[in-house]
Amino acid sequence: MLRVLVALALCLPLSGCDLFFDFPEWQWHxxxxxxxxxxxxxxxxxxxxxxxxxxxxxxxxxxxxxxxQRGGVSGEAVAVDLxxxxxxxxxxxxxxxxTAYTAFFPELEGKAMLKEEMFPYLDQMVASLGQxxxxxxxxxxxxxxxxxxxxxASVRRVSPGDLAATFGPGYRLNAITLSIxxxxxxxxxxxxxxxxxxxxxxYRTISNNxxxxxxxxxxxxxxxxx
Length: 226
Prior knowledge:
The protein is built from five helices and ten strands. By secondary structure, it is an alpha+beta fold. The protein has one domain. The protein starts with a helix and ends with a strand.
């Protein structure tokens, strides 16, 4: 706060000071779609989330946080109805504001770039309304299912490369795609499927399954808000 006040004091007497100019920021809606081949044919589910990336000026932070990139994704996880009361969920864990960037520009991953060099790509990505890209395998969100949809402690990880190990023969992941969209955020789908979702914090370790030992942390990524 002191740094900001000092900057104000130095800046205000000067004409043309750009202290209050907007800093680079991008906001958009993105739709994640998960499609699964089943013995009964293709099944798919999708969810629209909001995403934001911003690069604030250094004077807005202190120490190592000065000028640090900020952003995030908010919304609901994807639910794919596989039939017979079974569902596949793509959580918002490992699903970040940079997922869309890596999907639209996979050739840039690992390339050393100044932040200013990323700006034209971000402009292009946000302007790609209605366009869809495959999400790179290494950036897949965490996939889970519930042996009992009414019991959060029955959660299990699902391997994207071996759905048959969880659901049986004839099940395989077809694709995970992401598109830039102007559709409204998806809301209420999970509440209708998971009656316990608003009381998740009441659940604690009640199983020898190591994955459930992280309740409610892991499946807290069913929903994410800023």
